[in-house]
Amino acid sequence: MTSADSDTGLLAPGWAASPAAAETGDGAFLRALLDAEAALTRAQATLGIAPERAATAVTEAADPSLFDLASLAERARAGGNPVIPLVADLTRAAGEEYGPYVHRGATSQDIMDSAMMLVAHRTLGPLLADLDRCRRSLAGLAAEHRDTPMPGRTLTQHAVPTTFGLKAAGWRSLVLDARDRVTAVRNSLPAQLGGAAGTLAAFTAYGADDATALPAVYAAELGLRAPALPWHTLRTPVADLAGCLAFTAGALGKLAADVLTLSRTEVAEVAEGSGGASSAMPHKANPVRSTLVAAAARRAPHLAATLYGSLVAEDERPAGAWHAEWEPLRDLLRLVGGAARDTAELTEGLRVRPDAMREHLGLTHGLIVSERLSAELTPVLGRARAKKLLTGLARRAHEERRELVELLAEEEELKDVDLSPFTDPARCTGSAGELTDRALERP
Question: Which residues are known catalytic residues?
Fold first, then answer.
């Protein structure tokens, strides 16, 4: 039976059972904290300021299954962070001879920050894999529907014709922008090592000939980037994470918002491959994947704002600023990781309905091509006359519910002008096809 107080994502279907959930749970953080502690002892052994046997003993003792999460959480209250009780337990587990090499020279924030970077690095891996799934599926949709005409909408109203291929190519472009930002941030995530006040003083006292070499060795042990300086109060890594995650949520949220609009009953130009059921209405197939992605996009900016707020960190190590980061960063990683999973499923199963798109091009009685007609009639009638004529015909088309092409045919001054190439919306999509091709050249 699942523990009643375990964090299973009951109220968070957007990230529940996702790779991000597995990489951000309390167990994952415990593993990262232990990895950070063991790597520190190994790094000191590499530089000859700790015995190799200590490195082996601490690494073997850093087995998450040997530690009581509930007890660590309860005891963390005394010192304000979980590292303090963890060090006590790991020291005992390493044994009397090698226990003294646990956490030697470090401060709690070194371990907490390094663990946070490890968790982020591990979570961003599957997130990038899901973004790549989106990239592939959207490329297929864009290519397949390169020339599928549909109404372009601005300020909620029909504007001019576009193509679904161009819309899908735009979604893909945002996904690639997100991928590039997440990749850059993931590759730059640094380890943290500075000691009590960021001077590495304790490591010199323990015999390091050059303590400044230790952070790079430590980072290599963790698979993270070597920090240029201790960043206890220089929170660029966390701010960069906040930024790329918030951007990714927004990029995926734009796609979801479009799908939600286009899948409305009265629009029905697209549909999710397998809609969700309603608890009350048997006929409904709700766009659940889009809904969950849209929900994540609404929450992400506020979480990122908390992380940006923590840039204001006083002294060499602050009170409260780094503590404020742990939960919103985890929530961001979970939300965006779940949103990437859901968007991949959404785009892979999206059903496109070209017939509905074509039908909707006629909803304005041909007025959707008025911009193109204005451009074509200006050399014939002059700009002022062309605008006046089309404005009047547009009003009549609305009032009389007649097609614009019929009204144009009744105009004496246009009897010798062939407007047929410019009254078919499908032939008035501008450079949509070429723009789609150009977008698909981006790998």
Answer: 278, 317
